[in-house]
Amino acid sequence: MSQMPQQAALTKCPSCEEPLESGDRFCGACGYDLSVVPARPRDEPTIALNGSVPSQAPPGAGGSPVPDASAGRGTPAQGAPVPPPAAPVSPPPAQGAPVPPPGTQVPPPAEQVTPAPPPAAPGVPVPPPAAQGAPAPSSRTEVARGSGVSAEGAVPPPPAAAAPAPSSGVRFDRRAQPEEGAAAVGRPAAQPDEYPLQAPDPRVAAEQRPAADGDAAVCVACRAGRVDDDGYCENCGHAQPRERDHMEQECGPVAAVSDRGLRHHRNEDAFTVGATALPDGSPVSVAIVCDGVSSATRPDEASLAASRAAGESLLAALPRGTHPQAAMHDAIVAAADAVNALADEPEAAREHAPHQNAPACTIVGAVVTAGLLVVGWVGDSRVYWVPVDRSAPAARLTEDDSWAAQMVAAGLMGEAEAYADHRAHAITGWLGADAYELEPHTASFKPDRPGVVVVCTDGLWNYAESADEMAGVVPADAAVRPLHAARVLVGHALDGGGHDNVTVALVPFPAVPQGAGSA
């Protein structure tokens, strides 16, 4: 089994500096991908973008004075790369030896006399011969840009340079070049390798970043790059969270939360919640939840189209006096029509992908009035009833359109055995152009006590399948804090593994006036 490359453990996110836990692969605060954090660079010469070199030791620490940083761009600091001359020059005299007058050629010691190298190509630096007693040149000898050395060996004063721009925090670390000495024997010097670019400090980058254009999105990882139309950062290439990866909405007493989960690359669930009033002025709450069929084409579009069409149909029909159960049936039919319309593609598109399934999704909904609860569904998304008084029994109000439900209904398998089978979640009813036959299911109930209606996809009920298990994870204050309770339920599914998209809507019963809900 292949394994990820090992890297040093991080204690905080390099992007937002939030604390991390051992084994984290993504930052829980900003979503930064921790697997792309570059490894700690080796101890190699570092050159900042502005041309200045950080000091390495205090004066006198290495036996040599520290040069003045203001001496110009071509002045090296102690420990920094030494710019070689363009032609062979005389080595410096030993300490205490007389200094010859300028222009006098001083030959090297006899044991170090070497034949003169051929003339170097114009502009190609040639490393100087080593002086007696001087350490051997390192294989990592650096050639500083802009350090001019004349062919005669005299080092002219550096030209006046513009004030260096403030450092952006980006470093260029050059690795050792095996062909550094090529120019010494007449061959062209090898070009340096690509410099590895480290991620910029987001705080420095934020200060230097120009004002963004209008509503241009900024990367959540590096906080510096602009997000392109394809959803990736132009600076660091990090994929940005999609709008539908996590959604929350509260409308009066109704609330819903949807999350992509931990295994899927996108969220194929969708929901619609709303509140309105019947002709007599009594309040009514609506919740619709749809789950895209992953094996179909564009399931995310199917669920979104279905949830919107059903919600709009209900919120338009109920104020006109349509009975809630009839309104629910009509809403499912409207949702099916919206999904079917997605399959109306040009002939050319179908020719290029003739074996693709039409867009499809499941649907489940609830309508709650002052004394009536109506549910409707097609597929395997569910509605649960959880009373406020937990001593009373909870109940599941829908029956799945699935292979497992058919096996149980036919008496061929027990419920535990059927839902443990790998075919359990194969649905037998859905919305889509290739559905066998549209059969909307509706049912009405008149609970005799207050409670909360849980409308959810299988991404939640897979982790609390029975009514009692669902009642055990619904917070006790769900009827008065529906948004908080919906977040808790989504968190329960994510803690359980988050293998699927997770969507849940909570509707208190009986319906309460709009604006009474609280997160």
Describe this protein's structure:
Residues 253-509 form the PPM-type phosphatase domain. This is Serine/threonine protein phosphatase. Pfam families: PP2C_2, Zn_ribbon_3. It comes from Streptomyces caelestis. The chain has nine helices and 14 strands. By secondary structure, it is α+β, with helices and mostly antiparallel strands. The chain has two domains: 34-194, no CATH class; 243-344 and 356-509, PPM-type phosphatase domain (Phosphatase 2c, domain 1). The chain has a six-stranded antiparallel beta sheet. Strands 5, 6, 7, 8, 11 and 12 form a six-stranded antiparallel beta sheet that branches. A hairpin with a 5-residue loop joins strand 5 (269-277) and strand 6. Helix 2 (299-317) packs antiparallel against helix 3. It starts with 45 loop residues before the first strand and ends in a 10-residue tail after the last strand. Residues 1-7, 59-80, 109-114, 130-155, 164-185 and 188-213 have low confidence and may be disordered.
